[in-house]
Structure formats: C-alpha cells, structure tokens
Amino acid sequence: MVPDEGNVTSAKSTRLQDVVRMVPDEGNVTSAESTRLQDVVRLANNLMDQKVRASAARQVENKRRWESNQGNNHVQQPLP
To answer: What is the CA radius of gyration of the chain?
Structure first.
C-alpha cells in the first residue's frame, strides 16, 4: 500500500517542528569542534585563492581562443 502524500508531508512537517523546538531561542548553538578565528580566516583565504586561480585560468583560455581565432577572420563571407 502506498502512503498518502498528504500524510507523508504532514509527518515530515511534524518532525521538522520537533527539531526546531529543540534549538535554543537564544541562538547559542555551538559546534562539536571549536573553530578559531585564525582557522576561519585561513579557510576564507584558501577559497578566495581557488576562485582567483580559476578565474585567471579561464581568462588565459579565453585569450588563447581569441588569439587563435584572429587568424581565421580573413575568410571571405559567402555571397547572398
């Protein structure tokens, strides 16, 4: 027997409400492992470095395509 979709949705909603009730109102939720500010800064720097490297690689590839295409632009256009 296939459960009714409405019952499944209400069951999920009820479980979600139970989880939300367990979260403190003050917002004092902490992680299992404390994170130092230095670790967060290092992570942010690493992510930005990855983004910059990817952007630079994309620009080099686009420039390479543009330069290789410049020699091919001298082809005559077909007559209408």
So the answer is: 28
DSSP 76: P
What is the distance between the alpha carbons of residues 9 and 16, in angstroms, rounded to a whole number?
Answer: 10
Handedness of CA 52, 58, 60, 62 (dihedral sign): negative
d(CA 49, CA 31): 26
Size (the chain), residues: 80
CA distance 20 to 3: 25
Tokens read off for 21: 């009730």
Q: Give the global pTM.
A: 0.42
Cα–Cα distances in Å, from 33 out to 29, 41, 42? 12, 16, 16
Supply 4's token pair.
């009714």
pLDDT in tens, 35-68: 788 888 899 999 999 999 999 999 999 888 888 8
